[in-house]
């Protein structure tokens, strides 16, 4: 099992995704600030993984405040949450995890009598571990539900990395569905989209497929249409960073173009994401904040300059796929059908 994020006695241990696939190293992050920096610099990335790391970062922050009185402990907690909140704007799992840890902290610290900071720290650690375990359970459930949609002998195209590396570990979301179909003996093969500019497909998804023994072929993003037109893609399976109440889905830049190509070629397009990636407060994808990253990530690849000096480059890190281009959304609770505004509302009403 790939252990993406793990709580250890010295802090939070995470596989350094910046160094994959060349090196597999697991540094330990010892403070809330260090975890926040790891999220910001994408040592850890992928919506669910960011949420789990943030929860553990908060638990670390509370642990380090265990010698403080209530007032200072609350102040330190709030600073930690704020530091994490400003790391990356699009993946809603980050804000979901912060809100959940905040609710727990408030329930533990709002009692008028008796404030035991060590007990609070222990309980916050337990809550972070619960979030971690729930994420792994979600992976397993999504994989089981989603694998039913993958046909025998299918060539499945995926974008970015929505595997174990994008979650607490184990299966992943979109790649989890692919892994389950592979384990069921469906003779799956995977088209791995390189995923410019950050190359999560080439660096991370290809690494995971290789580790799991899943047949795969790496392609550059602009090859997808060619293979679809030739009938060599049976379905597209992607993850999500934030899904609005109507099913519009923000995912890695390039996902929208793939959905248009899939529609043109009548290829089913599936989104796999836990309920924590759905933001029912946003009516449509128009309201999803899109992270703008450094243009250097476009003009350079791993510090090697590929564009002339002074070239202006745009870098929206995500785009929004309209609900109408999506066949199904697969969550840990099952397969959602259209109209998504109704199936998502029903999910949150449960
Ligand atoms: O910028 P990243 O690498 O954090 O973006 C990740 C993605 O877009 C994934 O496809 C998404 O988070 C789904 S991961 C289960």
How would you describe this protein?
- By secondary structure, this protein is α/β, with parallel strands linked by helices.
- It has 2 domains: 5-140, Up-down Bundle (Four Helix Bundle (Hemerythrin (Met), subunit A)); 146-349, 3-Layer(aba) Sandwich (Rossmann fold), CATH 3.40.50.
- It is 41% helix and 16% strand.
- It has 11 helices and 16 strands.
- It has helices at residues 32-40, 47-64, 70-85, 92-109, 117-147, 174-183, 200-212, 224-229, 255-264, 296-299, 340-349, and strands spanning 5-8, 11-14, 28-29, 155-158, 189-193, 216-219, 235-238, 242-244, 249-252, 269-272, 278-279, 300-301, 304-305, 318-321, 328-331, 334-336.
- Strands 6-5-4-7-10-15-16 form a 7-stranded mixed sheet, with helices on both faces.
- A hairpin with a 2-residue loop joins β1 (5-8) and β2.
- α2 runs parallel beside α4 (92-109), α3 packs antiparallel against α4 (92-109) and α5 (117-147) crosses α6.
- The longest helix is centred in the middle third of the chain and has 31 residues, at 117-147.
- The two termini are 32 Å apart.
- The relative contact order is 0.12.
- 5-S-methyl-1-O-phosphono-5-thio-D-ribulose (MRU) binds at residues 45-48, 91, 160, 162, 166-167, 173, 200, 239-241, 251-252, 317.
CATH class of the largest domain: Alpha Beta
Poorly predicted regions are: none
Number of strands: 16
In what range is the share of β-strand residues?
15-25%
Structural class: alpha/beta
Instruction: Kindly identify the CATH topology of the largest domain.
Output: Rossmann fold
Shape: globular
Written as H for each helix and E for each strand, in order along the chain, the element string is EEEHHHHHEHEHEHEEEHEEHEEEEEH
CATH homologous superfamily classification of the largest domain: Translation initiation factor eif-2b, domain 2
Number of domains: 2
Q: What is the residue-mean pLDDT, rounded to a whole number?
A: 96
**How far is the first residue's CA from the last residue's CA?**
32 Å
CATH architecture of the largest domain: 3-Layer(aba) Sandwich
Quaternary structure state of the chains depicted: single chain
Bound molecules: 5-S-methyl-1-O-phosphono-5-thio-D-ribulose
Q: Could you give the order of strands across the largest sheet?
A: 6-5-4-7-10-15-16
Radius of gyration, whole Å: 20 Å
């Amino acid at each position: 099992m790939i252990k993406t994020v793990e709580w250890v006695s010295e802090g939070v241990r995470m596989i350094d995704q910046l160094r994959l696939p060349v090196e597999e190293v697991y540094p330990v992050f010892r403070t809330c600030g260090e975890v926040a920096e790891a999220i910001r610099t994408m040592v850890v990335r992928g919506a669910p993984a960011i949420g789990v790391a943030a929860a553990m970062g908060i638990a670390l922050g509370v642990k380090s405040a265990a010698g403080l009185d209530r007032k200072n402990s609350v102040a330190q907690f709030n600073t930690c949450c704020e530091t994490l909140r400003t790391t990356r704007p699009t993946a809603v799992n980050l804000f979901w995890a912060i809100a959940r840890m905040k609710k727990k902290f408030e329930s533990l610290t709002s009692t008028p009598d008796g404030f035991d900071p060590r007990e609070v720290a222990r309980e916050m650690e337990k809550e972070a571990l619960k979030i971690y375990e729930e994420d792994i359970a979600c992976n397993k459930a999504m994989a089981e539900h989603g694998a039913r949609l993958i046909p025998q002998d299918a060539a499945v195209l995926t974008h970015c990395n929505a595997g174990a590396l994008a979650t607490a570990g184990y299966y992943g979301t979109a790649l989890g569905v692919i892994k389950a179909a592979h384990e069921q003996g469906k003779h799956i093969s995977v088209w791995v989209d390189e995923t410019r500019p950050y190359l999560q497909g080439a660096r991370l998804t290809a690494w995971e497929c290789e580790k799991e023994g899943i047949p795969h072929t790496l392609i550059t993003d602009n090859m997808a249409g060619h293979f679809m037109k030739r009938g060599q893609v049976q379905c597209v399976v992607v993850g999500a960073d934030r899904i609005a109440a109507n099913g519009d889905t923000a995912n890695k830049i390039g996902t929208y173009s793939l959905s248009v190509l899939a529609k043109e070629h009548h290829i089913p397009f599936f989104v796999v994401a836990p309920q924590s990636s759905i933001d029912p407060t946003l009516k449509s994808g128009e309201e999803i904040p899109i992270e703008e990253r450094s243009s250097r990530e476009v003009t350079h690849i791993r510090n090697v300059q590929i564009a002339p000096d002074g070239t202006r480059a745009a870098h929206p890190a995500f785009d929004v796929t309209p609900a109408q281009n999506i066949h199904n959304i697969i969550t840990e609770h099952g397969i959602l059908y259209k109209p998504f505004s109704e199936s998502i509302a029903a999910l949150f009403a449960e």
